[in-house]
Design brief:
Layout lengths: L1 E5 L10 H9 L11 E5 L10 H23 L3 H9 L9 E4 L2 E4 L1 H17 L3 H10 L11 H8 L7 H12 L11 H11 L1 H9 L2 H6 L4 H10 L5 H12 L8 H14 L14
Parallel strand pairs: 1-2
Antiparallel strand pairs: 3-4
């Protein structure tokens, strides 16, 4: 059976689907598993700030500059060109080399850079992009993942997942250490959760696991507890808690407003008696 292992931290293990991947698949013959391939991989950690289009444009600009530089040097007389090149210890230009006392621009090197960028920054960036690339080359995919939360968030970024599930998964990932090879490193998986709900990281770091459990994972209670820990004046804390606790643009009975305000005073340890007039201050 064919196994292909790709480590997101090692670029040489990330194979182009249309060439090397397909060639590897055809190497094992006379096997009853010849129609099956097991791909074990981890996603890459490259930033998504630079798109493939941006990289292609930058590479094309560099290639154009290299051609212009080579043309200028090559336009010198042979004697001047040989003398000039002999004084250059090495060519500090991408895609340019010296050959027969002339500068030669190798555009294939630029194409390789673009292919490698696509492989590392796009194809192997997430299992979504990898499976999409495989399907485009007529591979039938069966995805197996141990992390349903990461899978769900990457498939549906707006998916509703209970805070409790996110928090407990975050705690599990925090307890893990980096291993020699992982499908996705704990840091990468935590980053997915942090982007989805920043409150998870904030609660973990500022309140701790036991406190969050004691608050029964209730988002409103957690937010209020975080406000209590702010190094700001009591009045400002009261305003922030009112903003979280009171519904906007809806009438609230005076008795309910006083009750809610008293609960805020009590939670902050303030010896005050709530009055309706406090809300008008």
């Amino acid at each position: 059976m064919t196994f292909i292992v790709s480590d997101g931290r090692k670029a040489h293990t990330q194979l182009d689907i249309s060439t090397l991947f397909t060639q590897i698949c055809g190497r094992v013959r006379n096997s009853r598993y010849k129609t099956q391939i097991i791909l074990v991989y981890s996603s890459t950690k490259y930033s998504s700030a630079v798109t493939l289009d941006d990289f292609v444009k930058a590479t094309q600009r560099t290639l154009a500059e290299a051609k212009s530089y080579a043309a200028e040097i090559n336009s010198l007389s042979e004697a001047a060109r040989i003398k000039t090149l002999s004084k250059i210890p090495y060519i500090n230009e991408q895609y340019v080399r010296i050959e027969d006392n002339k500068l030669v621009v190798d555009k294939n090197l630029a194409n390789i850079d673009i292919v490698n960028f696509k492989i590392c920054h796009q194809i192997y960036a997430t299992y979504i992009t990898l499976t999409k690339e495989l399907r485009q080359h007529d591979y039938k995919i069966k995805v197996q993942t141990y992390d349903y939360i990461r899978e769900k968030l990457e498939k549906q970024p707006s998916a509703r997942i209970p805070f409790k599930d996110l928090f407990n998964e975050y705690c599990r990932l925090k307890s893990q250490t980096e291993s020699f090879f992982v499908v996705d490193s704990p840091a990468q998986q935590r980053a997915v959760i942090e982007r989805r709900n920043p409150l998870v990281k904030q609660a973990y770091e500022q309140l701790g696991i036991e406190k969050v459990k004691a608050l029964k994972y209730h988002v409103g209670n957690i937010r209020r507890e975080l406000v209590k820990g702010l190094k700001i004046g009591s009045d400002y804390k009261i305003v922030k808690m009112i903003d979280m606790r009171f519904q906007k643009q809806e009438p609230i009975p005076r008795s309910q407003a006083k009750e809610n305000l008293q609960a805020i005073y009590d939670s902050l340890g303030l010896k005050r008696t709530a009055k309706a007039t406090d809300l008008a201050k």
